[in-house]
Amino acid sequence: MAFIERTLLGPGPSNPYPEATAGLAAPLLGHLDPEFIGILERTCERLRSLWGTANPLTLPLSGTGSIGMEAAFANTVRPGDVVVVAVNGLFGVRMCDVAARYGAEVVRVDHEWGRPVDVERVLAAHPSPAIVAAVHAETSTGVRSDIGALGAAVRARSDRTLLLADCVTSLGGMVMDADSWGVDIAYSGTQKCLGVAPGLAPFTFSERAWERRVAAPPVWYLDLDLLGAYVRGGAGGRAYHHTAPVALIASLDAALGRICDEGIDAVAERHRAAGARLQEGVQELGLELFAAEGHRLPQLTSVRVPDDVDSAKVREQLLSDYGIEIGAGAGAYAASVWRIGLMGANARLDRAELLLAALGRILGRSRV
Amino acid sequence: MAFIERTLLGPGPSNPYPEATAGLAAPLLGHLDPEFIGILERTCERLRSLWGTANPLTLPLSGTGSIGMEAAFANTVRPGDVVVVAVNGLFGVRMCDVAARYGAEVVRVDHEWGRPVDVERVLAAHPSPAIVAAVHAETSTGVRSDIGALGAAVRARSDRTLLLADCVTSLGGMVMDADSWGVDIAYSGTQKCLGVAPGLAPFTFSERAWERRVAAPPVWYLDLDLLGAYVRGGAGGRAYHHTAPVALIASLDAALGRICDEGIDAVAERHRAAGARLQEGVQELGLELFAAEGHRLPQLTSVRVPDDVDSAKVREQLLSDYGIEIGAGAGAYAASVWRIGLMGANARLDRAELLLAALGRILGRSRV
């Protein structure tokens, strides 16, 4: 079997940490093996640490990042519940779709794509929603929103509203403090800043959310009562729910070990420095950044494609000539934006310089 | 990192094929990379071949085996639909739970655990159900049911009823002919006879089922319209739905390549021979088999625990002294049955002899 090597600088997956690959290929353990249960418990504890939460119900769900969004709404929305969704990109749009499937009365607060969430507008959208939902790091635009400010505003008004945050592209790449931000429900994906192959959705659920959860939600696979009985155990021990994806969890555990050893502050600084250099270099090439200044994610840079350039052709040439993958834009920006990720193991200056050099060659532009 | 090696002879996961492990650790590709799309298409084609189906909608779902069951009901059940479920073990019970969450009027046909599904009783349960569901290989008891006979009977009566078959523990270990059996919807898991780590649910859906699918089902993640747009593509190319678990799919592809090279007839014969030897040897040790004679799965052997033996203690000793995992019984049989799997890469005579030797030593029984 001939392997093909890629440098994955799109919006995810990114190249895994070497520790994650070693964990993935390690001898397989059974999902009820005491050794595996130890790995699972450590994984949950490390996820709590990265998120800055004490939530007992913090675990990797058995699906890709999107299943985290599904689990969030499936376990909290009752038909007729008002859910305010801050939409400033594709994943906000998706939240509206998912929440509506569970019967939510969705109040959608649209923002211009590329701009962060406006806390005042979100708050003004409805006086007493059951849930306020927003995306921390919009993978579709490269924009960071201030979840702490949103949480403080929501909490100041009422204790009845749950705050839901999409952290797919932030967890493992930024310092987070979910509990003091007032986040009740959050999820992520392994294939972005966590530096693991796709297939798991880290998930956390506060005690406040637990008290108001939906009993026997429509989706058996994501029923938190049943999942909790396996992950947390109980008086009668751990109850089998479904076979956990043991290899992916061992891989996530290994990557989290690497991140914790390096220290989340150092990892975040590594993401910041690599992203800053990339964004500087992109502008040196005479290209324009898409996301609003002051709200740009270092781990995901969105670039406006010049009018005279064929967006897809450049991506194809990066892939064929240099083995580098970058992403198209999302939605209406498919042909007019590129998305470049420097996430997890790829949050490095050499990756930034490599991409700038290859892109400069293809565009026939030198840095000014 | 010190690795722990286990011989996984429980009801799954089993030790992966070496080809599957190599595929899992291969350099990661993006989910939209043309090279990966080639791997995905080949995987779907090989799944069709193993299942004996021409269904265009045949794909690995992004979750463990149970998500296949969820997708099956989520995309076919409308509130009030009559679903007849043949229950002869834990997974039949689970089908009733899952179908009911989507609003099905469940007609449950209970069988004694350890016995195969009785086609006449299932047929007599309701004159015109929307769906008849049964488990091909009951992982909880080690029993095979005749899905071909059930399909013929269902089809002979009406063209309006869909046949749903749980193939979690059969696909990759037995010769199957889903299309001529009349199966409309089937799912499996990768961690049993397919010899891959857990995390994917192979799934197939007939054109007849497609015509009667639920539009915009409650579960966004499992919406076959959206999944199909990525897996099958369309006039506008492939639409992104969620990030496919690329490493697991590459691993499944490698295992399927191995199975197809060996030939499914030869693979099935390997399972048959290993299971036959194990079941013979277990009886030589003076132990009794649980599943009804003539309906025993070779890949999963259920054994009655002798009255004077502590079931859990024996399993613990197998694990600690020999690194061998076997399973407890399911449900009410937790303490009175052992489940021993010889699946996928473990469907070998040496594994059967190893288990018999270790079990004989622990029980202090020699073969007679």
Automatic annotation (TrEMBL), chains A, B:
Domain called Aminotransferase class V: residue spans: 30-332
Q: Which PROSITE patterns match?
A: AA_TRANSFER_CLASS_5
Q: Which family does it belong to?
A: Belongs to the class-V pyridoxal-phosphate-dependent aminotransferase family.
**Name of the protein in question:** Pyridoxal-phosphate-dependent aminotransferase family protein
Native source organism of the sequence: Nocardiopsis sediminis
Q: Has the keyword Transmembrane helix been applied to this entry?
A: no
PANTHER family reported in the protein's UniProt record:
ALANINE--GLYOXYLATE AMINOTRANSFERASE (PTHR21152:SF40), AMINOTRANSFERASE CLASS V (PTHR21152)
- A Pfam family recorded for this sequence: Aminotran_5
Cofactor(s) recorded for this entry are: pyridoxal 5'-phosphate
